[in-house]
Amino acid sequence: MTVPIYPSLGRKVAAYFAVGSKARFAIAGSDELTARVAMHPYPSRIFTIDEEVAAWTRTEPSDSARAQVAARLAALDPEHVATVVYTSGTTGDPKANEFDADVVLVGRRGRGGVAELLLGSVSHELVLHCKRPVLVISSL
Predict the structure, then answer these.
(1) Whole-angstrom Cα distance, residue 57 to residue 72?
(2) Residue 82 contacts by C-beta under 8 Å, 6 or more apart in sequence?
(3) I need a labelling partner for 34 at 20 to 30 A (CA). Which of 9, 16, 47, 109 fits?
(4) Along the 140 residues of the chain, how does pLDDT read in single tens digits?
(5) How far apart are CA 30 and CA 32, in angstroms?
(6) Is residue 27 packed enough to be buried (19+ CB in 10 Å), middle (13-18) or exposed (0-12)?
């Protein structure tokens, strides 16, 4: 489940969202955004897009990680919450609104051929196992 925390949010509201949702980890686009949710019990880990997340895209997942993803995908129910969006809180504390997903959007590297055969494809696994429609966007 995702809980977006936008750059326009102040430190107090961003922390409220992170702690209230009990987020396990956060992905931040800058040191400033990292600081907005740091120093609280949730999230316990904060990753940066330009460094850590970028490194994930250059590393192939292990067989055990792939098996874990497949098991989690198989356990998903279309009625599960996909994202939580908080209200602005202009009239009090922000309120959480939960939404399920009508469609899953996933990117694709487009390796193809032997590389995809040997290494597998997350988008392919989603298409095979997801209980919602999957829209695959190929890189250009």
Answers:
(1) 20
(2) 1, 2, 99, 100, 101
(3) 109
(4) 677 777 777 778 788 888 888 888 888 888 888 888 888 888 888 888 888 888 887 888 888 988 888 888 788 776 776 666 666 666 667 666 666 667 776 766 665 555 555 445 667 777 777 777 777 777 54
(5) 5
(6) middle
Instruction: Copy the structure tokens of residue 26.
Output: 């956060």
- Tokens 């198989």: give the residue: 74
Amino acid at 67: A
Closest by CA position to 127, among listed 119, 136, 118: 136
Give the β-pairing of 45-48 and 134-138.
Answer: unpaired
Contact call for residues 114 and 38 (beta carbons, < 8 A): no
Which residues does residue 104 pair with via DSSP β-bridges, in sequence order? 134
The model's pTM is 0.55
What tokens were used for 132?
């919602």
Per DSSP, 104 falls in state E
Q: Does residue 118 contact residue 36 with C-beta atoms inside 8 Å?
A: no
Four-residue CA torsion sign, 101, 107, 112, 118: negative
